Amino acid sequence: MVENNEVELSEAEAEQYDRQIRLWGLESQKRLRASKVLIIGLSGLGAETAKNIILSGVKSVCLLDNEKLKEIDLYSQFLAPSDKIGENRAEASLQRAKALNPMVDIITETKAVDDLPDSFFTNFDIVCATGLKQEQLERINNICRDNNKKFLCGDVWGTFGYMFADLVDHEYSEEIVQHKAVKRGPDDTEKNARETVSITVKRRAIYVPLQNALSTDWTKPELRSRLRRGDPSYFVMKILLRFRDEYNRNPDPAKRKADTEILLRMRDELVKELSLPVGFVSDALLTNVFGIVSGAAAVVGGVIGQEVVKAMSQREPPHNNMFFFNPLKCVGFVELYGQ
């Protein structure tokens, strides 16, 4: 939980965040203003996530990336100018990121996550990780859990994307609307009217680690019933994470034919492993997972930014625990895995 006892908004901050304060209240904005955020991976998704979080008015943001800016990044990465190709992606994004909100402290880190000690990740209230292998994601998630820090991760491949959230043991407030009967006059025989009143209630949500969510037992009847709904997004995510783990990269547009064959082979292996219905994961979902399409990055980055704001402000129910964007259906949805 982010403490905000000593945080006071300046007059300039109150003016800057006036709309947000009206939306979710002064105390929630103070909690945001006390929050320190780490964003790993400055791809198109990382840029969208950074933009949303910086504009929300957190205390500080660290942009971590050890990759060099490539020409393909420019199709979705709007924080890094084209004349910075070949430079570190985080450093190339710094100037435009600072210009979004001068009231937020923004720094960069150019080391790879494997070269950073566990203690580095505990310096932040929440970590948002993109573009990492499953082992790296699980390592950082476990560090966060052990130190009661919140963790989100996500990725966009082509037009497909996902987000996972582990807020550990999260307390939040939610405003609910109730209908209350009121008398229209002093005469008891007169017909009663109803008015709506808003009340704030305290709630709690318990999360599971990423490892649990990714090792879901699909032999359970309650999970097999999900297959009848017909959305394979969870399995598409697992295939793409497996591809990254095995080849140390994402599917490459320059190797579309060869990589598509690999993805379809991995699909067939996963279908056999989990006894999924044949044809459940269609070819079409695995032929549009090359590069990062800016529209999909905007959707998933918007969701991650929204969930960071909700988690840090402790306002409104957060997603528990996975969000998927299915481009074939052009729909986003939330499902719970690992419990």
UniProtKB/TrEMBL annotation:
Heterodimer of SAE1 and UBA2/SAE2. The heterodimer corresponds to the two domains that are encoded on a single polypeptide chain in ubiquitin-activating enzyme E1. Interacts with UBE2I. It is found in: Nucleus. The keyword Heme does not apply. Belongs to the ubiquitin-activating E1 family. GO terms for molecular function: SUMO activating enzyme activity. It comes from the Eukaryota. Pathway: Protein modification; protein sumoylation. One of its GO terms (biological process) is protein sumoylation. Transmembrane segments: none annotated. This is SUMO-activating enzyme subunit 1. GO terms for cellular component: cytoplasm; SUMO activating enzyme complex. Residues 17-328 form the THIF-type NAD/FAD binding fold domain. Keywords: Nucleus, Ubl conjugation pathway.
